């Protein structure tokens, strides 16, 4: 079912419900008011007749019938009957001679017992049974009549309410249809603009939704802003992917070109064993660099996946950090690491994190390795601090430092500053570390002063707060 039709039906059902409630309430209160009115009028007639009958020495039944007949204009098809305590009819009057009531003794007994008026209906007449009791006589008087004015008003009211109900339904259907068109028009425009956006024109943004809705806080403006932010992220992702592919292709082609060129030159003529050894040594260095780059790219691709596909375990972060000194020195004997655990918490649970051990170690190792690589003393200090719900790891070096304008750029894949081009590397370590930390719902920031050194701060959520 189309949304437009669904909105129209829901709007119509809402209006029908409201109209039904209003019409039913109006009719119900009008009906009860008619019943109360006719009860009051019949009770007055019964009381008057009872008073006349109790004064039998003054008013005979013929005179009483004349008095009852004089009220025929006020009430149509009036019938008045009186019964004594033995349920014997002692008085009867009817506007129509053949018109009588089928009186049930249970009604008479009920009236005597309650000593109040009892309302009931017979055929189309409204009737009451009234127990009249004074010092001289007691009997039950039944007064009945057809309430022609009241029923005529109710018929007229039913006609008005029925026409209003049908008119309200038709109005709600038509109004709901045009209301839904107006309501969904911005959504249609947004969908049309989104359909025109592709990978070739990601720079285009959605504007039409806010043209008809000037309020920046309405839902259509919010939807447009949300989609525009999504397009910004997609454009940024495409640009990063394009740069990554271009840089990866360049980094991969460089050692391959070097290898093929050296082998081609070596095969042009017969060479000595020493010359072949030099060629093989150079090719080996290029192949090693190519393998290292390939491994790094595989790690980056693994870290770029979803966190749901990783093997997540409960880890102690201090045990991961304790692996750093041996691994860093093993990779380069000139590198050294100092661990500062002076502020460890008393509760060991605050050192626990949920994550993948190898990926977390790879991220921290890359940052520590960079700190050692770009420091004159090839030394890095790693400090561990917890505050109950977060684990903070700071990696400090006394290297050349990073300019503030490059603090964000260094986390882009393959980015290398001008003064670091002479140092071997691919520019993937920091971007890989950030991606791994993001998979673990963590973050990484840098504070650096050129010529004095840098401090990289890693923050991970503690398992104790989860």
UniProtKB/TrEMBL annotation:
Q: Which residues cross the membrane?
A: 159-179
EC number(s) per entry: 2.7.13.3
**Location in or out of the cell:** Membrane
Q: Which Pfam families match?
A: HATPase_c, HisKA
In terms of Gene3D superfamilies, this protein maps to: 1.10.287.130, 6.10.340.10, Histidine kinase-like ATPase, C-terminal domain
The residue ranges of the HAMP domain are: 181-239
| Domain Histidine kinase residue range list | 247-464
Q: Which PANTHER family match?
A: SENSOR HISTIDINE KINASE TRCS, SENSOR HISTIDINE KINASE YKOH
Q: Which protein, by its recorded name, is this?
A: histidine kinase
Species this chain originates from: Puia dinghuensis
């Amino acid at each position: 079912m189309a949304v437009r039709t669904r909105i129209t039906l829901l709007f119509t059902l809402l209006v029908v419900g409201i109209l039904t409630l209003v019409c039913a309430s109006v009719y119900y209160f009008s009906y009860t008011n008619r019943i109360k009115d006719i009860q009051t009028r019949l009770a007055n007639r019964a009381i008057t007749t009872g008073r006349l009958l109790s004064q039998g020495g003054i008013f005979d039944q013929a005179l009483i019938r004349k008095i009852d007949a004089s009220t025929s204009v006020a009430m149509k098809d009036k019938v008045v009957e009186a019964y004594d305590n033995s349920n014997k009819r002692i008085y009867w009057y009817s506007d129509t001679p053949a018109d009588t009531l089928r009186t049930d003794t249970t009604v008479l007994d009920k009236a005597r017992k309650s000593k109040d008026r009892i309302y009931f209906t017979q055929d189309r007449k409204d009737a009451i049974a009234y127990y009249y009791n004074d010092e001289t006589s007691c009997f039950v008087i039944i007064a009945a009549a057809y309430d022609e004015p009241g029923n005529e008003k109710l018929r007229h009211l039913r006609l008005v309410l029925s026409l209003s109900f049908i008119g309200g339904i038709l109005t709600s259907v038509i109004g709901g249809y045009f209301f839904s068109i107006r309501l969904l028009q911005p959504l249609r425009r947004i969908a049309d603009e989104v359909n025109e956006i592709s990978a070739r024109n990601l720079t285009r943004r959605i504007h039409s939704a806010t043209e008809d809705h000037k309020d920046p806080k309405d839902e259509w403006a919010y939807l447009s802003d949300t989609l525009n932010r999504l397009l910004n992220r997609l454009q940024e992702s495409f640009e990063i992917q394009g740069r990554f592919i271009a840089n990866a292709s360049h980094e991969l082609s460089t050692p391959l070109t070097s290898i093929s060129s050296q082998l081609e030159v070596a095969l042009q003529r017969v060479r000595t064993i020493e010359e072949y050894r030099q060629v093989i040594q150079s090719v080996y260095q290029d192949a090693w660099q190519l393998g290292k780059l390939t491994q790094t790219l595989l790690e980056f691709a693994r870290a770029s996946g979803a966190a749901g596909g990783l093997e997540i375990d409960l880890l102690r972060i201090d045990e991961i950090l304790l692996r750093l000194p041996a691994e860093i020195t093993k990779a380069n004997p000139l590198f050294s690491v100092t661990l500062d655990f002076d502020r460890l918490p008393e509760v060991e649970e605050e050192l626990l994190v949920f994550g993948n051990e190898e990926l977390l170690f790879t991220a921290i190792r890359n940052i520590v390795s960079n700190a050692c690589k770009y420091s004159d003393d090839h030394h890095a200090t790693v400090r561990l601090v917890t505050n109950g719900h977060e684990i903070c790891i700071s990696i400090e070096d006394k290297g050349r430092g990073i300019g503030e304008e490059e603090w964000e750029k260094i986390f882009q894949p393959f980015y290398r500053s001008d003064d670091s081009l002479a140092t071997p590397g691919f520019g993937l370590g920091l971007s890989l570390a950030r991606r791994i930390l993001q998979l673990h719902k963590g973050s990484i920031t840098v504070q650096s002063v050129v010529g004095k050194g840098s401090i990289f701060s890693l923050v991970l959520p503690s398992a104790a707060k989860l």
